[in-house]
Amino acid sequence: MRANTLIQAYERMALIRAYENTVVSLAGQHRLPGTCTSIGQEASAVGVVSALSSDDLILTNHRSAGHLLARGADPARMLAEVMGKSGGYCGGKSGSLHISSKELGVVLTSTIVGGELSLVTGVALARTMLGQAGVVACFFGDGAACQGRFHESLNLAAVWKLPILYVCENNQWQAFVHRQETMLADGVVGHAAGHGIGGSRVDGMDVEAVREAAEHAISRIRETGAPHLLEVMTYRLRGHFEPDDQAYVDPAELARWRARDPLVLLRRRLIESGMADEADLDRIDVEVGVRLDRAVGVADASPYPERRELTSDVYA
Amino acid sequence: MEMTVNDAISAALAEEMRREPTVLIFGEGVATKRPDLLGEFGATRVRNTPLAEGIIAGTAVGAAAMGLRPVVDLLFVPFLCYAMDEIVNSAGKLRYMSGGQFSFPMVVLAMTGTGWGVGAQHNHNLEAWFVHAPGLKVVMPSTAADFKGLLKSAIRDDNPVLFFTDLALGYTAGSVPDGDEAIPLGSAAIRREGGDVTLVSYAKTVHTCVAAAEALAERGVEAEVIDLRTLKPLDEGAILRSVAKTGRLVVVHEASGMCGVGAEIAALVAGKAFHHLRAPIVRLTGPDAPAPSSFALEQAFVPQADDIVTAVEGILEDRAAPVG
């Protein structure tokens, strides 16, 4: 990747990290409800989303902040949503777990594990039938891959030839259970062959590798119209749902993955390659911090929804 | 013209697919069993699917959000248990949860009810579950004309609609008006007028109520029969107006009683028409038991006209009792 692209990736990943740290900190102060963070998965979000074009769509899940921010979401509107404010992307009716934004092309988020897998086939079908170009990316975790819907979705997408990029963010954890307890295979990419579709796996801590793998998968989908399963090997560096002391996590495993923190790896690469120096990256970190502080202020100032919103938008 | 309920459903599907190019239909065996639709509209809009109710329903939800108007056939209502997440959590909630960004114009077709003898995993009247879930509409017609007119409205509606066919009605025939007539959702029909007692029902047991009303008429009792047609939205006005006139209410349905539609109607009348009531409200429902497959037990499961006559006679005896 070229220097400016890679620096942009760093900036976006730093924004995601700062956003998630802000949410964790605000949750700790009881200024908003607990949430599922995507800390550790920033390279996956930025690598895949930056490989999409603006007319491609995204479906995501409860661990979605990275995908939204990578797509250009406004952190102030996200924070307002998490705080239950009317200025949030969904008017405060979603909270942190199901933010969607039609204007950003991030549609139909589900927090039911695997829910997005059941919806993505219809989104892709509609685009195909309405003659709209574009790929639909669907983010889910290794936990969702243990649901039956995973197979139902891949099977139907394969049979109907739907242009879907299935992105399994294998973060090694399924809520409070390590995936080694729930699957014998070392991951999910093997299921692609079983459904007769393309599959690939990539190091999810390396944003360049993720971007390259996603670009390759997306160009295959655009050429063939058929779905593809991309497994991104990453790690959930924090607990399932904040606050979470991670007492159930093997400290040695956590330390191994922390040493491969995607922001640390990218920082090192940028400096070692001469694309940026410490000061450049520190400046980005500061700018991102300022942006988040401002976003908290905007979200705080947003009013709560009017009482009449309780029963609005139930029916069309 | 005269046609069966099944033909009325087919006619509604064909007319709406002709009228609106974004309407499509898919499900297990849909293309196989509907060659006329397949021939006219092609394999893109008339699709067979794998036997996987969850992904069928989920695909409809996703497609509806993005501009299509899917109709899915999930065959039998108990099979919807495999699709509850998609119907209840996604179709019913994601409009609200997204702050109104998306709408879900989709129809779920399924059959249910006694009459086929195939047992409780094909026959389970679960309509109350969906009435209870926000964001969904529920339709259970009783006549061929209503099947056609209400299905047309269901397809045109911008909300997810559960459209259930009482399978014993599939081959019953009725007069269906020619033309493009859609019957609005949320409007009950009075099948028979009367001033002594109100019988409220929907689907197959509407006909049982009409039979009971005819038997009662021979004894000088005039029963009014209300066919709800749509369970959600519920036509409260039609129920309350009738009870204001008759002062007596019997609710009849095949689904079991506890937390059923009849309980809601009883609560509605007790709350809003209490001073009109001259006798206790009666509910006649199926038992708290899975639907049996044995014909003899199946018949025992369903409220029969004789049961309704007996129930009405029971509350008419109270006619002599002083009020208040």
Automatic annotation (TrEMBL), chain A:
<dbReference type="Pfam" id="PF00676">
    <property type="entry name" value="E1_dh"/>
</dbReference>
<dbReference type="InterPro" id="IPR029061">
    <property type="entry name" value="THDP-binding"/>
</dbReference>
<dbReference type="InterPro" id="IPR001017">
    <property type="entry name" value="DH_E1"/>
</dbReference>
<feature type="domain" description="Dehydrogenase E1 component">
    <location>
        <begin position="12"/>
        <end position="306"/>
    </location>
</feature>
<protein>
    <submittedName>
        <fullName>Dehydrogenase</fullName>
    </submittedName>
</protein>
<dbReference type="GO" id="GO:0016624">
    <property type="term" value="F:oxidoreductase activity, acting on the aldehyde or oxo group of donors, disulfide as acceptor"/>
</dbReference>
<dbReference type="InterPro" id="IPR050642">
    <property type="entry name" value="PDH_E1_Alpha_Subunit"/>
</dbReference>
<dbReference type="GO" id="GO:0006086">
    <property type="term" value="P:pyruvate decarboxylation to acetyl-CoA"/>
</dbReference>
<keyword id="KW-0560">Oxidoreductase</keyword>
<keyword id="KW-0786">Thiamine pyrophosphate</keyword>
